[in-house]
Design a protein that fits this description.
The chain is an alpha+beta fold. Helix content is 21%, strand content 29%. The protein contains eleven helices and 36 strands. A four-stranded antiparallel beta sheet has the order 1-2-4-3. Strands 11-13-12 form a three-stranded antiparallel beta sheet. Strand 7 and strand 8 form a beta hairpin. Helix 2 crosses helix 4. The longest helix has 44 residues.
């Protein structure tokens, strides 16, 4: 033993390398036990998951086969001869059915009168049960979640409860048959109270909808061009589908007045009827703003609501319960009316009675117009409340009803029917605002001279006040002598040298008319064939003659175009006041 040990040792020692103090330890190759176990665990999980997915896929395929078989059998029960034989013999006809699944099918005629009723409370007659046995538990669970629409009752293992608690289960598909089932070739099957669309009764490539075969698939409808278009929740007044195809989409309403189709989710229809709005009664967010059955009512989805100017309070409050930014604002002086503005605010005031606007803005509204916040320097002549109007230093509230009156922008105002007293209040806010008359009764024109256009019956003194703010404004009295103190106050693009009339380009003449603008027009403009002008202006047009009939004068008369084939008589005798043959 000693010799053996001694003989081995030198060899071992000779094969072992010596280390110097400068040698470093190196990392060892290979994997630890923990790493190996981890890898095996992952492989195990993936394997188990793969097997589970494979098993589920197999069972899904089995379930689909059974559904195809049930539909095939159901299809057979709709043929008149089959129905007749079933009802007479209470046996399913002995026929070869090309079933897909390997499971056994049987038939019976159950008595389910304890829990099958029609809408009149009567029991449904003539039920048939198609029974399939040997169904694996997973496939059975899948089938219980996919009951066909034509099946009245789906039972598992003899119980009308959805429980698959066996390795091999029996499913019972129960549906109705009746002697008045529809003839072969139609696309729905009906009992006395139950009708079911069935695509299998339509030609290939067509689909069943309301007992009518259509080439448009479910979820699609036909437009007026004959194309199948997808039903959309975004439809808000489209005119490309007719009423029948609009309602086919299910969640729609059709307006006969507008001939447009509306989605209940986006409903915003100002002129529909209560009956048409009730097409969306299944949608709790849709509210008719009036309850009348005659005339037009606004129909809106409160989630997308904007405003309605003459809503009933009770209907608006329904919207308010759905959207807390909606308010009801009665416009009567006391604020107690049951009809008023129903509108959505960006922000409500503290007591929820009006919209709250940012600093420098005020809340405006108008019958037939939106309700919104506007800058105090916008919307010159709009409706608002006095509370809102008073927020703007540039504005004056006009009206006796402080909840609904005019809010006049004194800067840039152009109001034809204010009283002088009212206009004076604007003058106090903006000195260039001038009333064109001094009477305190009746309407006077109230204008900001810096943005002035014209006023046909202004007082000379008032017009001259305006002339100080704009040098292109003139006063033109229309009496024969030109000395009247009431006349046309108007702004010219260019004045004549004397500043007594507007100057027009060559080929044009200056026209004016009580109640109409004063402007330059082409001599050949037939749209202004018989307008008012002065003789000086009319003489500028070789194709027009001057007519002072009906009390006119040389400063204010008619200037019509000569009839075809005639020209103005410019002789001393004619003096441009008549036309003669060419």
């Amino acid at each position: 033993m000693k010799r053996i040990y001694e003989s081995i040792t030198p060899q071992y020692q000779m094969d072992t390398p010596t280390r110097s103090k400068y040698d470093r330890k190196t990392a060892q190759s290979g994997r630890s036990m923990v790493e190996t176990i981890g890898v095996l665990a992952v492989i195990g999980v993936l394997t188990i998951g793969g097997i589970a997915g494979y098993n589920y896929g197999i069972n899904k395929h089995r379930a689909n086969q059974i559904l195809q078989d049930i539909r095939l059998i159901y299809q057979e029960t709709k043929y008149p001869n089959t129905v007749r034989q079933i009802l007479e013999t209470e046996e399913f006809p002995d026929m070869e059915l090309d079933t897909q699944s390997p499971y056994d099918y049987s038939f019976d005629f159950p008595d389910l009168n304890d829990f099958i009723y029609d809408s009149a409370g009567e029991t449904v007659p003539n039920l048939i049960s198609v029974n399939v046995s040997g169904v694996p538990q997973t496939a059975c669970d899948i089938l219980l979640k996919t009951k066909p629409e034509y099946v009245l009752i789906l039972k598992a293992n003899g119980q009308a409860v959805w429980t698959c608690d066996k390795s091999e289960n029996e499913l019972n598909y129960i549906f109705a048959i009746t002697a008045d089932s529809l003839d072969y070739g139609t696309c729905s099957v009906c009992t006395s109270e139950h009708c079911f669309d069935d695509d299998l009764n339509c030609p290939e490539g067509e689909y069943c909808y309301n007992d009518t075969c259509s080439r448009c698939a479910h979820g699609y409808t036909e437009n007026k061009s004959g194309q199948c278009v997808q039903c959309s929740a975004s439809w808000n007044g489209i005119n490309t589908v007719d009423e029948e195809n609009c309602l086919r989409c299910g969640d729609n309403a059709y307006s006969k007045h507008h001939k447009k189709c509306y989605s209940c989710d986006k409903m915003s229809n100002w002129e529909t009827t209560l009956d048409e709005c009730n097409e969306c009664s299944h949608n709790p967010n849709v509210v008719a703003m009036k309850t009348t059955t005659t005339g037009h009512v606004g129909c809106f989805n409160c989630k997308n609501f904007g405003y309605y100017p003459s809503a009933e309070k009770a209907q608006c409050e329904k919207c308010m319960a759905i959207n807390d930014n909606i308010i009801f604002y009665p416009k009567d002086a006391n604020g107690t009316a049951t009809t008023g503005l129903c509108t959505k605010c960006d922000t409500k005031n503290a007591d929820g009675t009006a919209c709250e606007c940012p600093t420098g803005q005020f809340w405006i509204f108008s019958d037939g117009n939106h309700s919104f916040c506007r800058s105090c320097t916008e919307a010159p002549n709009t409706y608002s409340s006095k509370v809102e109007c008073d927020k703007c230093s540039e504005r004056y509230f006009l009206g006796t009803n402080e909840r609904n009156g005019r809010c006049i922008l004194c800067s840039g105002v152009s109001n034809w029917e204010m009283t002088k007293e009212e206009c004076d209040k604007c003058t106090a806010k903006n000195e260039s605002t001038i009333p064109m008359k001094t009477t305190t009764t009746g309407g006077v024109g109230c204008f900001d001279c810096k943005t002035f256009g014209y006023y046909p019956s202004a007082e000379k003194a008032q017009c001259e006040k305006c002339m100080k703010y704009d040098e292109n404004i003139i006063f033109y009295p229309k009496d024969a002598n030109g000395t009247a103190t009431t006349g046309l106050c108007t702004k010219c693009n260019t004045k004549n040298t004397e500043g007594t009339a507007c100057e027009c380009p060559a080929g044009n003449f200056w026209i004016f008319s009580d109640g109409n603008h004063s402007f330059c027009r082409s001599c050949t403009d037939t749209a202004n064939n018989n307008v008012y002008a002065s003789k000086i202006e009319c003489d500028k047009c070789p194709n027009r003659y001057y007519n002072v009939a009906k009390g006119g004068n040389d400063r204010n008369g008619r200037c019509p175009i000569c009839p075809t084939g005639q020209v103005k008589d410019t002789s001393a005798e004619g003096d441009g006041r008549r036309c003669v043959a060419q």
